[in-house]
Specification:
By secondary structure, this protein is mainly alpha-helical. It has a domain at 1-28. 63% of the residues lie in helices and 0% in strands.
């Protein structure tokens, strides 16, 4: 095996190991609580604009 093929094999191994680690972290039980909190915060948002006087046009156009 020449050095080019060895480099390709090592790079492929590195990518696969990195993918497995990232997947493991994303689907671990400790991440579930954090993801559930973020998902519920989007639903609980009041959708009201923040700041301003309330006199601004709703379509975003300047007067």
């Amino acid at each position: 095996m020449d050095l080019v093929n060895l480099g390709r094999a090592l790079f492929t191994l590195l990518v696969v190991v990195t993918f497995v680690i990232v997947t493991w972290i994303a689907y671990s039980k400790s991440s579930k609580k954090r993801y559930d909190e973020v998902a519920s915060s989007v639903i609980d948002d009041d959708d009201a604009p923040h700041g301003g006087t309330g006199e601004e046009p709703s379509n975003g156009a300047k007067q």
